[in-house]
Specification:
- The protein is an all-alpha fold.
- The protein has helices at 25-38, 47-91.
- The radius of gyration is 27 Å and the shape is rod-shaped.
- The model has no long low-confidence stretch (mean pLDDT 79).
Length: 101
């Protein structure tokens, strides 16, 4: 059974998070297990390729988690900035007329 590397341009694109066709860790492990069980014992998959694929998937998972965390931090900072603006607006006295008549 021929197995294309993940850098081959003929592989399907993994959709961004939030879409129905997103692949996760379970999908990757299921595909890897199927690949290993169906390989030719006289011509097995190169270990370096397998490790490289696993490393790329781990990196992608880490980057996705980092992006999620950074998005949450950004939302919290935006909310805090708005709260500070509201507090400043509420506590700043209205300008008074300093001209004498």
């Amino acid at each position: 059974m021929a197995v294309n590397s993940i850098t081959n341009n003929n592989n399907p694109v993994i959709n961004p998070p939030g879409t129905a066709n997103q692949m996760g860790q379970q999908d990757f492990l299921r595909l890897m297990t199927a690949q290993l069980s169906q390989q030719d014992p006289f011509n097995p998959v190169d270990n370096q390729q397998m490790v490289a694929q696993m490393a790329q998937f781990s990196s992608l998972a880490g980057i996705t988690e980092t992006n999620t965390t950074l998005q949450q931090i950004s939302e919290q900072l935006t909310a805090q900035t708005q709260l500070l603006k509201d507090i400043k607006a509420a506590t700043t006295p209205a300008p008074t007329d300093t001209t004498q008549q």
